[in-house]
Amino acid sequence: MTTRKKGLNLLIYLMSYTQNLLLMKQIVLFALLTLSFQSIVNAQTSDPYTPINQPHSKDSATKRAVRQLKTLEKRLHLNEDQVLQLQVILINRDVAMDSVARRQPVGPAAPPGSGRASDFRRTDNRARRSIQQDADQKINAILTDDQKTLYQQWKQEQKEKMQLRRQMHQGSDSTRGAKNATPPSTQPQNPSEPLH
Prior knowledge:
It is built from five helices and no strands. The protein has 196 residues and is mostly helical.
């Protein structure tokens, strides 16, 4: 009987040991899956193709859409249903805009002056314009007449702000190059005339 008890105890011990091994195996597998999932998420969020020269590229499409949604919700006095519909429209628009911004020209690199790079930019601009027009149509479809008027006013304000930013940016670029140039007041009007 003692051998039976010993055999039974050994069997119980081996079963619990096997269960512990299976449990440890499951824990290790879970940890590996968690780490791999985390690396996939990080790989998707840190996009190496995001254009550096675009200030809004730091935010994800969802963050930009939410920020704009909050602004429009206040400005247009949207109801809950409109907010939900607008959220979907804005996220889809910003994701599509991001995909256009990330596209790379196909084929060999264009030699300088070949015009292929400007063709690619022109195509991107057309795609962006088309995406924005599509979004505007969908947005106007869910707005009341009063809200449409407010939306057009808001869009005009945004356009003016963008033009002002571009002018300021161009002004800062031109002042950098002008540092080395001679001021117009010190340049002679006629090469034969002396400086005053």
